[in-house]
Amino acid sequence: MSNNLDLSLVCMESLLEVPSTLSKPKKRWHLAFATIYCSRALYSLLNHPVSNNKKRSKTLLTSPPSFVILNVEPQHGFSNFDQHSLTQIVKHKSLTQLLELGGVEGVAIILETDVKNGIHGAVEDVTRRRKAFGSNAYRKPPTKSFFYFVVEAIKDVTILILVACATLSLGFGIKEQGPKEGWYDGGSILVAVFLVISVSAVSNFRQNRQFDKLSKVSDNIQVDVVRDGRRQQISIFEVVVGDVVCLKIGDQVPADGLFLDGHSLQVDESSMTGESDHVEVNTSLNPFLFSGTKVADGYARMVVTSVGMNTTWGEMMSTISRDTNEQTPLQARLNKLTSSIGKVGLAVASLVLLVLLVRYFTGHTEDENGNQEFHGNLTKADDVVNAVVRIIAVAVTIVVVAIPEGLPLAVTLTLAYSMKRMMAEQAMVRRLSACETMGSATTICTDKTGTLTLNQMKVTKFWLGQDPIREDASSSIATNVLKLIQQGVALNTTGSINMATSGSRYEFSGSPTEKAILSWAVLELNMDMEELKQTCTILQVEAFNSEKKRSGVALRSKADNKVHVHWKGAAEMILAMCSTYYDASGSMRDLDHVERTTFEQIIQGMAASSLRCIAFAHSQLPEEEHEIREATQKLKEDSLTLIGLVGIKDPCRAGVRKAVEDCQYAGVNVKMITGDNIFTARAIATECGILRPDQDMNNEAVVEGEVFRQYTPEERMEKVDKIRVMARSSPLDKLLMVQCLKQKGHVVAVTGDGANDAPALKAADIGLSMGIQGTEVAKESSDIIILDDNFASVATVLRWGRCVYNNIQKFIQFQLTVNVAALVINFVAAVSAGEVPLTAVQLLWVNLIMDTLGALALATEQPTKELMEKPPMGRTEPLISNIMWRNLLAQALYQIAVLLTLQFKGESIFGVSEKVKDTLIFNTFVLCQVFNEFNARKLEKKNVFKGLHKNKLFLGIIGITIILQVVMVEFLKKFADTERLDWGQWGACIGIAAASWPIGWVVKCVPVSDKPFKLSKVVGISLQRYKLLLFSFLSL
């Protein structure tokens, strides 16, 4: 009894599991049958028990339940599916185990996927799959915490020097003045260090978060899938197990899966295996596809078997974190500059320390009462220690002055701000270095389609033979020719056609060119794509690529079993493969020299009207020839019959001409590199302003890729600057152009969208990929992604690149003026009087608060028209230009002169005490920096107030700085070691500081040489002077 019962229950259980692949009527029949079967099985068991145990049988018979509940609802899970097993089959490429499951079709049945129409795609279906198999996202390593950036900031050499100075100052201050007031100098340095660390850590932490946001945007790839029989684009994160994904050249495989159908599919698995050779994927030998790999050639459809963390790519990426600590070339140069300035400060501080110690121990210093401080053995040891501590404190103050803490902060703020603004203007920065490098760009090599043009293509002309077909094309074309055109369009394409949800119009998918041709064939020629696919079997496909500029297909007609070859591609290339053509009546004619010339003129005429010319050709193959060609995997490429020509219009973008002119006005050469023929390329280039009407092939401004390739290296180097347009170019030609330009010293920016553009994008100084039409391979190879594919956005990136460099130069000029003036004043005062007028607290206030606020004010200046009026900066352009040296030295000399006058004559001029005099020096020095901040806004222009009203942040920071200075002078007397000033003294300080405006205006009238100013010579002269000073003091 128990065995029979178990067996019956197993049968019932299997019957109740309704396969979801069945149609609704069949499901109802299945459930009805299951109900009847189960009822009969239970009735049989109850009335005919087979058991030796009679009592048990009677109990079972006499105690039946009053009713029976049967669960006849279909199951919605994947209980019979072992996800881990299938994942391992794909990972290990186990063909044997795959065949045991029934091959790819068997897996599709298990995953409840229709291989033609995909999954159902309803919200419930997608949710169920995501719940069963997980989402297509991988766990990322935890983001770096704020504490991590604090620790990184502490490791900075500048910070370590300041901490050492603070420790010494704190110890010496408490020893000399007691703990109540002795902590001021050392404590203020520690406060300054804390602020530097905090600002740096906050800035880097926010930048890291910004990178994470950008990463999410760049990782959000759009994927073509088939759901419920409709081809549609979804986010890669929305892909689920069972999805049918459409792949083409340049796509990234979004998840692990199996090859369903396709042709000539070659996959680059180097990201997974490190092997550079492309792997062929097909149904018979290798149907396995892996997430993260790239499609190198061909096209295909795949069924997804694993997503997210269940893929090999997911496991690998979960252990990799994005490195946001990238140091740009400019940051490296600034760190070097900061280090050099710090070394100069240490050298000066050491010199001052030596001079002061020599002065003290030789008896040339006096105390407050005018008595000699050092009396040899008569001086108390405690007095000697205090004097030495005071001298060391002076040296420490000079070191603090010399270190420009604000420089690295200024770069970080500028780059972060510019990245955020560029994102808002349709440019996503993937590598920080590109922000600044773009400012130095001297040449931009741009694509045509989608960048200079709208990428909204439409067939506007059609030629059959040598006659243009204008309206009602289908009725005026011979039946045999119409059938061949429809066949060539429908079966030699990677695009697809779907009916819109409303059912009243068509939806076309594929590349813009494919969509234009499909739309024309359906709407003008009444083509039925699905019907044509049913009448033929595709035998072999040669996918389109940018080198061959054509695609072909071999197919067998089911009606007569004959083999046909169709080609489609660049008109002049297809024409060269033809020996005959169809005329308007449908008759085949020989293509002799005269006829060929006529066709070439037709193609040139369409190209001159800015049309992209596409030709269709056909040939019928004898069975014997087909077998030979099938063995060699080569389609017939000669003696074809030309079917017709179409002209596709792609209008130029609005504003592209102005953007090109802006770049040219800024001294940047714009070159167009396109795959179109030379006449189309010339017409578009002239329309966009890249080419003048008088420039053509005669003056070498326009060249074909093949011609450029055949030049000798010497000829290429000689002619590359003259070239404005390269037509019929391959990706290799683009790479060759970039290499030549770089060898000539150009800073090259390149735009690209195809997988084959990757080498040129990597070789360029700045790679710009297209966000809409760009393949994932191109995006990964680029530095900046142009999100709207518009050349105007490229010009915007150029403007922001120059703005970044210019803003940093402004701040360097401002920062070094502060440092040079403070260093010289303290050095001269220390050597001459043995003390410094600006204390460590005051200098740190100037160096830190003003520099931090100054960095924020100058780093956030917007791009101006003046930036595009200057020629680009070359690779070897010095960071500190001659113009900056002129402005910097003039302001620094004025400040030094004024402050030294106050130092030595201030008491008598103003009739004040020494304490008030020192406060006047400090206040005047700070206000000089406030006024000089206005001068720093414009490096060359005399009117420094232009556009000031637009920069509310700058005005706000100036206001905050003045308020803080008033608080420092008037209310923090003990901490800042200051005295209160009256209105007259404030007026005098403001008047002296305001004089920097007219000085700045006059100085900018002084011309400077273009020859770079050598800092090493100045440093050499300065060191010689320091040595002379040292010897003079030692001789006293």
From TrEMBL:
Coiled-coil residue spans: none
Domain Cation-transporting P-type ATPase N-terminal, first and last residues per copy: 101-169
InterPro entries noted in UniProt: ATPase_P-typ_cation-transptr_C (IPR006068), ATPase_P-typ_cation-transptr_N (IPR004014), ATPase_P-typ_cyto_dom_N (IPR023299), ATPase_P-typ_P_site (IPR018303), ATPase_P-typ_TM_dom_sf (IPR023298), ATPase_P-typ_transduc_dom_A_sf (IPR008250), ATPase_P-type_domA (IPR059000), HAD-like_sf (IPR036412)
SUPFAM superfamilies reported for this sequence: Calcium ATPase, transduction domain A, Calcium ATPase, transmembrane domain M, HAD-like, Metal cation-transporting ATPase, ATP-binding domain N
The UniProt record lists the keyword Metal-binding: yes
Organism domain of life: Eukaryota
NCBIfam families: ATPase-IIB_Ca, ATPase_P-type
Protein name, as recorded: Calcium-transporting ATPase
Species name: Vitis vinifera
